[in-house]
Specification:
Number of strands: 10
Largest sheet: 8 strands, mixed
Order of helices and strands: EEHHEHEEHEHEEEE
Bound molecules: NADP nicotinamide-adenine-dinucleotide phosphate
Strand order of the largest sheet: 5-4-3-6-1-7-10-9
Number of domains: 1
Shape: globular
Number of helices: 5
Length: 182
């Protein structure tokens, strides 16, 4: 159960069959679908503007490093027990940590952060298992990829959700925002 005031939000895209990446981490299928008309970003810019810290797993960090850094000056915490070094050009905004999710939230709360963006399948699963996620915005991409890294996984008990908003676009994206009823 969450004891800190920091709000934890997930904003993530999945294939219709529930994967966030292919088994080898490839996400090119996300960019091969027809974009929304008019450059609409499915609310990502607004969401990103509403958070003050980003926490991601090592798997997501390693994939993001293959591209131009997309998060500007946003403070980013990478959860990893195996990584030790952040690339030099990112050291002013990225740090590696390995506390439990609860301890991490307490620490970030004490540092003054209020709204956290949580990213990475395994990391999201571990925070969900501990009842530490407040809301999730899930964008379903109209494609089946058959196998891959799942967004959701094993849980010890059912997690109930309240649908807050649901919208869709002509290109087939369907976005649902849920409050997690921890
Ligand atoms: N579709 C999308 O919108 C979307 C969004 C995000 C990511 N992705 C893709 O998803 C893939 C990565 O996802 P993923 O599920 O494999 O990995 P992930 O959650 O990004 O990273 C998992 C790793 O984080 C570390 N970790 C530290 N603390 C943890 C904790 N409490 N719980 C879980 N992991 C913890 C572990 O690394 P150590 O072994 O170093 O400790 C673990 O192996 C990438 O290919 C990425 O591009 C897609």
């Amino acid at each position: 159960m969450k004891e800190t005031k920091i709000n934890v939000s997930v904003y993530i895209a999945t294939s219709l069959d529930g994967f966030i990446a292919r088994p080898d981490g490839d996400v090119s299928w996300l960019h091969e679908v027809e974009p929304i008309e008019g450059g609409d970003d499915a609310g990502f810019g607004e969401f990103f503007g509403s958070v003050d810290v980003l926490v991601m797993g090592r798997g997501t960090f390693e994939k993001v490093l293959e591209f131009d850094w997309p998060y500007g000056a946003m403070p980013v915490i990478v959860l990893s027990r195996s990584l030790t070094e952040v690339p030099k050009k990112l050291r002013d905004r990225v740090r590696i940590e390995a506390p439990t999710p609860q301890v991490l939230l307490e620490k970030l709360s004490q540092e003054g952060f209020k709204r956290l963006y949580l990213d990475g399948g395994k990391v999201i699963q571990s925070f969900l298992r501990e009842g530490l996620v407040d809301d999730m915005t899930l964008t379903t991409i109209p494609v089946l990829i058959g196998e891959g890294l799942p967004l959701f996984g094993r849980i010890d008990k059912d997690i109930k959700l309240r649908l807050l908003e649901c919208r869709s676009w002509n290109n087939g994206f369907v976005q649902s925002k849920y409050q997690v009823l921890n």
